[in-house]
Design goal:
Elements: E1 3-5, E2 8-11, H1 15-26, E3 35-39, E4 50-54, H2 60-63, E5 66-70, E6 72-75, E7 78-81, E8 86-90, H3 92-102, E9 106-107, E10 110-116, E11 119-124, E12 128-131, E13 133-136, E14 147-158, E15 169-172, E16 181-190, E17 193-202, H4 208-219, E18 224-236, E19 253-255, H5 271-287, H6 298-313, H7 318-328, H8 331-338, H9 344-351, H10 356-370
Parallel strand pairs: 1-12, 2-3, 2-13, 3-9, 13-19
Antiparallel strand pairs: 4-8, 5-8, 6-7, 10-11, 11-12, 14-17, 14-18, 15-16, 16-17
Helix pairs in contact: 1-3, 1-5, 6-10
């Protein structure tokens, strides 16, 4: 089996691996190094919907990926403005094209990864590889998943106007809850076209038959065609919480993406977090400083654990909690909180909209359990 030598190898050409390759190729520093992406599926195309929000204009790389923009969240048929934020959708097709243009992936399936004194060795089905650093989005160890954010989504085109293109609908709770927390997520592109996604927060993932029934009930027997489909399950767990800011000096196998804890466990939003982590890694490599982890402040990790506990043990409160948050708090404050940029004063205003006894009880249980 042939041995292929590189300086940096990225395992997985999805969001986290793609952002890291793009960040490396952007810096002149890396021109002298050999970089490779190894990906088992080189045919990636429109396979997922990545969304994010920003207060400022997107940078040049993000601007090339934009597939939709919205400044309003529609909740209970009310138009709630997101300013100073704008909500964006990124095109997966354009993102994968950008990656292939700078670093075409090597197609292989990874069997083993091992670190040695002189670097890291990877055994694939087709070839063997060696690098000084390996950045991997592949899960390393089994984790305890509290919940899954499972979903089925369809890009739908109706014959008659049905959607309100002025705004997204982040969490439409008009569907039955079925003993868990589930909602319709809508990204409208026009009055006759939208991404309609059925999402469930639960231990048991939603199956396709259930999702189809909920979708069709929401569409109220409209005539429509489907131009795109997606499905998935994102772990909602505190097991991937990062408690240290940096990797050790001798670590050469570096997790990225969800495997590194870059996914916020209560929302699933990851796209910008992956981009930021990639840029931080590149800065560390160029400056020869410790490689950072996607560290989050303790209090935001605690907030997530409390909400996960509530959803796991008293799932019927999910609809009420999210409904209150979106109905009573300013939308910009909610987005700022989800970005983990709020102050304690901001958080006090948000928490005032929520069931206080429920959260205080679960705060006590969480702190008691941690002792």
């Amino acid at each position: 089996m042939e041995l292929n030598r590189y300086d940096y190898i990225i395992l997985g050409g999805g969001g986290s691996g793609g952002w890291l390759a793009l960040a490396m190729k952007k810096q002149q520093f890396f021109e002298r190094y050999k970089i490779a992406i190894i990906e088992k599926d080189a045919s990636k195309a429109e396979d997922r919907t990545w969304c994010f929000w920003l207060k400022s204009e997107p940078d040049a790389m993000l601007a090339q990926l934009i597939a939709g923009t919205w400044k309003i969240n529609r909740h209970h048929n009310k138009e709630l403005r997101l300013e100073p934020y704008t909500y964006y959708q990124a095109s997966a097709v354009k993102f994968y094209e950008a990656i292939r243009n700078v670093c075409p992936p090597i197609v292989d399936t990874i069997k083993t990864i091992s670190q040695h004194e002189d670097g890291v060795t990877i055994i694939g089905e087709n070839n063997q590889y060696h690098a000084q650093y390996v950045f991997t989005s592949l899960p390393s160890l089994p984790i305890q998943v509290d919940f899954l954010q499972s979903f089925y989504g369809w890009r739908i085109r109706t014959q008659q106007p049905y959607f309100s293109p002025s705004g997204i609908d982040l969490m439409n709770f008009s569907i039955p809850q079925s003993g868990c927390t589930q909602f319709i997520y809508i990204l409208p592109y026009s009055s006759t076209e939208a991404l309609v996604e059925v999402t469930r927060f639960a231990e048991r993932p939603i199956d396709e038959k259930e999702a189809l029934q909920l979708r069709d009930a929401y569409l109220n027997n409209l005539q429509y065609s489907i131009t795109y489909e997606e499905s998935g399950a994102i772990p909602m767990t505190a097991a991937l919480d990062v408690t240290k800011r940096f990797h050790g000096e001798n670590e050469r196998i570096i997790p990225i993406g969800t495997a590194a804890g870059a996914t916020k466990p209560t929302t699933g939003y990851t796209f910008l977090k992956m981009k930021k982590h990639a840029e931080d890694i590149v800065a560390a490599l160029t400056q020869k400083t410790p490689i950072p982890k996607p560290y989050r402040k303790y209090r935001f990790r605690l907030y997530d654990r409390i909400l996960l506990r509530i959803l796991r043990e008293t799932s019927h409160y999910g609809k009420e909690i999210f409904d209150r948050l979106l109905s009573k708090a300013p939308q910009a404050l909610v987005l700022k909180f989800l970005d983990e940029q709020t102050t304690l004063f901001d958080e006090a205003k948000l928490f005032a909209t929520l069931p206080k006894r429920l959260f205080l009880k679960n705060l006590w249980l969480e702190l008691k359990w941690k002792k």
